[in-house]
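W.,

You were right to be curious about this one. When I first looked at the sequence I had no strong expectations either way, so I just let the prediction run and decided to look at it fresh. Below is the sequence, 91 residues in total, followed by the output.
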Amino acid sequence: MEEILNIDKQGRVVLSTRIRKAIGIKGRGKLLARLDGSRIILELFPEDLNKRVEEWINLARNIKIEVFTEACEESWRWMSLEYAKRKLGLS
């Protein structure tokens, strides 16, 4: 679907009813605008995004990490402590 839209002096663009219905905008809402070269990409911005991000942050912070101290499988024996430190930039 393509439409030519007008931009007013303040830079506002009005989406037609046809476009709003096609992407599910009812009443007011928010769009995320991204530039891709000379293209402007508009995507619906979920209103509950901040809430979902906070939930993920809390989940990640509350994960209990346990140290793995068991002997490793034969396939992991090639990885020495020195190799791991080099890969992590610690040596």
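Here's what jumped out at me. Residues 49-61 form the longest helix (13 residues). And, maybe more interesting for your project: The chain has a mean pLDDT of 85.

Coffee later to discuss?

I.
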